[in-house]
Design a protein that fits this description.
648 residues; alpha+beta; five-stranded antiparallel sheet; 20 helices; 39% helix; elongated
Length: 648
């Protein structure tokens, strides 16, 4: 019994010890659970109150790689889809010094392949970069190499054996702007960097042409695994023009040909002071023309517009002298090395800024006799002229104490309105405008849009608001009204007069001139369609038909005969305007016309500012240019000619 009791006494302390240990474990476990609950609560509190703060701290301590993926600027295309401006791929060659230094045995082979693919990269340059910037991971070895050069190297890198010998090299893609036709429509298109338009349509439609860069985000985690996210770039939209590259080429070649002939004429005869001008009177100062000249230029400026009068579309717009869009500051085509060597940088900059101007939109000048059809239209539409009037031209008129001469100093004799236009008679116009009066004249100037911007979708349109006379000024000074009747002493822009002329010949609808037809995305889907906009009515249909009939006589039998094209009936008007200051005897000579005369489908307007020939006021090159243009574009546009006998 003693032995049994002894064993029982030994078991009881052991049980009590075990019980105490279990209780301690429960307590520790409970404490740990409480601590976990407190910790979780604390973490939740921190996440709620300061989560963003600590997230930024953590992220800032990680290794990230972020690369911009550039967007591609949209194209500019003509109406037939011909690309006039585009972006091409170029590449920067990037060296990762840290990676290449870590593979020291591959340095020589890598350099050998680089020198083979890229002649501009020198081995000593690479070795210097490895020594000077051993941990650098972005060192540009060459900029804007061609796709062909990059692809040659990439093929080596992709080769199973050769690729092992090239380490730490990669390519960064960029875009550069290219113009496939160099100088074609240079002032209209303008030029740009890869992302920013400088002048012309590139500037006007910069927001539409630009896109949004993408980005590649790379994160190296603690296990050295790369986590990467790519946001693709959104490329820019493309701009489709009303301009036709074929017509534009025809226009520019006609302008270059005429200017070459003017240069030859000037070289053969020597520059002479032309005869004293035939149009005089008080003058309103317009924009000074300060284009520098050289022996290779046939004029200060020669410009042309081709428009569709039925919808306001601009089919061609050209300015001379032009420039190469791919090298816009290059003047070697206009000046000799000797001439350029004598110029200061400021003079060169002035010349560059001038040739970048789009003359038909940005320059103002006195229109001369191309304005006379508008004077006739004023009289007919206001009812002050009936159309059966006759006038006697004796060579000039005494107006406000001035003797204002006619084109023909000994006079045209008796003539009706048709022949007043055909002969371009100043005397008859001055007699007409006395009847029309300052009130009607000022009213219709506004109706035709003179003194107002057309709103053409091109940058830099000049304002002529301060360059025309109001009713009070016309009434106060008789000579102002007289000289205005034949297009002197007020200023217009080419686009302004061309738009107004379109309304004269299309039955009276003045369309807003435009050169953009639509905006399309990179898939070719239309984003925006540009529809023709009729801004106002200018003349009645009856007056429009009368003017076309009168202007047909101008080209068939009058001053515009040199613009006539065999097989077609063209209606038009010539113009010769003496520039300010009058004593320098410089002129703007011009021609504006349409075809076919009975249902005009195309209007051509040519202006030559200061032709470099003797007797500028007798210069007919504007008519020759217009003829050259009409001869080529009328068949191209399938414009009907004069019916052949026996045909319907």
């Amino acid at each position: 019994m003693a032995t049994g009791n002894s064993r029982q006494r030994k078991r009881k302390p052991k049980k009590r010890l075990l019980k105490r240990m279990q209780n301690k474990l429960y307590f520790v476990f409970g404490v740990i659970c409480v601590l976990f609950v407190v910790l979780i609560g604390r973490l939740m509190y921190i996440e709620y109150t300061s989560g963003d703060k600590y997230e930024k701290i953590v992220l800032a301590q990680q290794q990230y790689d972020s690369t911009i993926i550039p967007y591609q600027r949209g194209d500019i295309l003509d109406s037939k889809g011909t690309i006039l401006a585009t972006c091409v791929d170029v590449y920067n060659v990037i060296l990762d010094c840290k990676v290449l230094n870590a593979n020291e045995d591959k340095i020589s082979s890598t350099i050998s392949y680089l020198e083979l693919c890229f002649p501009e990269i020198k081995g000593e340059t690479v070795r210097q970069q490895l020594a000077d910037n051993p941990d650098g991971q972005y060192v540009v070895l060459a900029k804007k190499v061609s796709y062909e050069e990059m692809q040659k190297c990439q093929q080596f890198m992709d080769d199973e054996e050769k690729g092992k010998e090239i380490v730490g090299i990669w390519f960064e893609k960029e875009y550069v702007r290219k113009y496939p036709y160099n100088s074609l429509a240079a002032a209209v298109l303008g030029f740009s960097t890869s992302t920013q338009g400088v002048i012309g349509l590139e500037k006007q439609y910069n927001n539409e042409l630009n896109g949004t860069n993408g980005r590649s985000y790379g994160y190296l985690n603690s296990d050295s695994n790369v986590e990467q996210t790519v946001v693709e770039p959104q490329n820019g939209n493309s701009v489709v023009l009303t301009l036709d590259a074929n017509i534009q080429t025809i226009v520019e070649e006609a302008i270059l040909k005429a200017n070459a002939e003017m240069v030859a004429e000037s070289a053969g005869t020597g520059e002479q002071t032309p005869e004293e001008g035939t149009q005089t009177g008080e003058a309103q100062t317009g924009e000074a023309q300060s284009t520098p000249t050289s022996s290779t230029l046939g004029s200060n400026n020669t410009a042309a517009i081709v428009m569709n009068p039925k919808n306001g579309e601009i089919l061609a717009m050209a300015s001379y002298p032009g420039f190469d869009l791919n090298n816009p500051k290059d003047l070697s085509a206009l000046y000799t090395e000797e001439q350029l060597g004598e110029m200061s940088e400021e003079q060169k900059l002035d010349i560059v800024n001038n040739i970048w101007q789009n003359y038909p939109v940005t320059k103002t000048f006195e229109p001369g006799s191309t304005f006379k059809p508008f004077t006739v239209a004023m009289g007919l539409d206001s009812g002050t002229l009936q159309g059966d009037e006759t006038y006697f031209c004796d060579g000039g008129e005494e107006v406000g104490g001035w003797t204002i001469g006619c084109v023909k100093r000994d006079g045209h004799g008796e003539e009706d309105i048709r022949w007043a236009l055909a002969n371009s008679c100043n005397d008859a116009m001055m007699q007409m405008v006395r009847v029309i009066g300052p009130s009607n004249f000022a009213k219709f100037m506004s109706v035709y849009g003179f003194g107002q911007k057309t709103g053409v979708d091109l940058p830099g349109e000049a304002s002529t608001a301060s360059l025309i006379f109001n009713e009070e000024q016309l009434a106060q000074t008789e000579s102002n009204l007289a000289t205005n009747s034949f297009g002197q002493n007020f200023n217009v822009t080419m686009i302004q007069l061309a738009s107004a002329f379109c309304s004269l010949v299309n039955g009276g609808d003045m369309f807003q001139p435009h050169i953009v037809k639509r905006i399309v995305d990179e898939s070719g889907d239309t984003v925006k369609e540009v529809s023709p906009v009729i801004m106002k009515r200018t003349v009645s249909k009856d007056v429009s038909e009368m003017l076309l009939d009168y202007m047909l006589t101008v080209v068939d039998e009058g001053t515009g005969k040199k613009a006539a094209v065999e097989g077609y009936q063209i209606a038009g008007k010539t113009g010769t305007a003496q520039k300010q200051p009058r004593e320098e005897n410089n002129y703007v000579v011009s021609f504006i016309g349409c075809a076919p005369y009975d249902d005009p489908e195309v209007v051509v307007y040519v202006a030559i500012d200061t032709p470099h020939v003797a007797a500028q006021d007798k210069c007919s090159y504007s008519s020759y240019i217009a003829k050259d243009i009409f001869e080529q574009i009328l068949p191209y546009l399938n414009v009907k000619g004069i019916p052949v006998e026996g045909e319907e």
